[in-house]
């Protein structure tokens, strides 16, 4: 009998091993099946998300107008989430307030476009009282309009009502239905270009100018009337050449290498104030769908200009555009300035009044 014990034990061990192998195999198959189903569901959801059209209605009811300028048939680059360094543009944003006569019943030589926060009525009123009030300069018609997005926060509805009342009085607000924020300045700029491309083909120049900037309108118009100033492919301001892409993640305007691999941005005029000929909005929009827009709006315009093979132009005098002027400015300094940053509303008013009284350099 003892001779049979090892054989039976071996058989039982063999059966046990085969049973164990079958159990492990079945468990592996179940795991693979779950993984496959998970992947299939994930891919399906992603495809649906990427291909779904935005069929939502505007927040502010009937009467809106689409930003219907179409500049290029090149497909828009697609991504699920713009992330911290890109913004969600191009998009089908809509103009929900746009009854200004500028470029519709008029054809100004120069349009001054001021991107401004919805709540910043004090700056808008200051501009209306100062340089924005200048309508005929050196024989040229000038018009000023303000561009805003949607207000946010708990008081958004009240602020929207106040914007509508403000526009009823001045008819100089252009509002689109993107969320107005610092991060969305590129969207604001591109929407501005859409509006210009659609309405202002008969005008000659546009200046984008921030709401804290003093503008010497006569000095600007004199530059634009100069026979040396091009009327096409022209963009000027405080041009930043060889501006480095900042790689320190702890400072403002950090940009990782997987967003921009180059060490420098293409040349661009600083966003505080820049001028462009009115052929450029349409051209910039034509290439923008091919370039993922970063949230640094002026650098993004430089990227679009590079794609077009166009370089910005330095102004004849570097003192014409000043981002960090040494206050207070002398009469000689003021006589040379086209645009400069101010530190307060009262400072802007004082400088503008001095310009109106006449400023010049001594003999």
UniProtKB/TrEMBL annotation:
Which molecular-function annotations from GO does this UniProt entry contain?
A: N-acetyl-beta-D-glucosaminide beta-(1,3)-galactosyltransferase activity
Write out the annotated subcellular location: Golgi apparatus membrane
Q: Record keywords: Transmembrane helix included?
A: yes
Membrane-spanning residues = 35-52
What keywords tag this UniProt record?
Answer: Glycoprotein, Glycosyltransferase, Golgi apparatus, Lipid metabolism, Membrane, Signal-anchor, Transferase, Transmembrane, Transmembrane helix
User: Might you give the EC number(s) for this enzyme?
Assistant: 2.4.1.-
Which family does the record claim for this protein? Belongs to the glycosyltransferase 31 family.
Identification of the protein by name = Hexosyltransferase
Q: Which organism is it from?
A: Cyprinodon variegatus
């Amino acid at each position: 009998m003892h001779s049979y014990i090892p054989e039976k034990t071996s058989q039982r061990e063999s059966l046990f091993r085969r049973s164990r192998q079958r159990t492990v195999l079945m468990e592996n198959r179940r795991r693979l099946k779950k993984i496959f189903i998970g992947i299939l569901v994930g891919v399906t959801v992603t495809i649906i998300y990427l291909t779904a059209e935005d069929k939502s209605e505007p927040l502010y009811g009937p009467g809106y107008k689409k930003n219907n300028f179409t500049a290029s048939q090149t497909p828009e680059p697609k991504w699920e989430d713009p992330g911290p360094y890109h913004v969600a543009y191009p998009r089908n944003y809509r103009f929900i307030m746009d009854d200004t006569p500028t470029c519709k019943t008029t054809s100004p030589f120069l349009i001054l476009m001021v991107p401004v926060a919805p709540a910043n009525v004090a700056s808008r009123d200051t501009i209306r009282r100062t340089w924005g009030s200048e309508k005929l300069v050196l024989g040229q018609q000038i018009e000023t309009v303000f561009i805003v997005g949607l207000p946010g926060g708990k008081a958004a509805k009240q602020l929207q009502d106040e914007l509508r009342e403000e526009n009823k009085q001045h008819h100089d607000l252009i509002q689109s239905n993107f969320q107005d924020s610092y991060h969305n300045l590129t969207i604001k700029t591109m929407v501005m270009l859409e509006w210009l491309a659609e309405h202002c083909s008969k005008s000659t120049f546009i200046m984008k100018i921030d709401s804290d900037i003093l503008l010497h309108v006569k000095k600007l118009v004199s530059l634009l009337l100069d026979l040396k100033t091009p009327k096409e492919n022209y963009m000027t301001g405080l041009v930043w050449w060889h501006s480095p892409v900042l790689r320190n993640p702890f400072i403002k305007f950090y940009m990782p290498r997987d967003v921009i691999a180059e060490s420098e941005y293409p040349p661009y005029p600083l966003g505080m104030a820049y001028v462009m000929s009115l052929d450029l909005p349409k051209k910039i929009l034509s290439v923008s769908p091919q370039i993922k827009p970063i949230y640094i709006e002026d650098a993004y315009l430089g990227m679009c200009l590079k794609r077009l093979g166009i370089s910005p132009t330095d102004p004849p005098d570097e003192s014409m555009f000043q981002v960090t002027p040494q206050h207070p400015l002398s009469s000689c300094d003021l006589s040379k300035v086209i645009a400069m940053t101010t530190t307060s509303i009262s400072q802007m008013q004082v400088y503008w009044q001095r310009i109106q009284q006449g400023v010049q350099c001594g003999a």
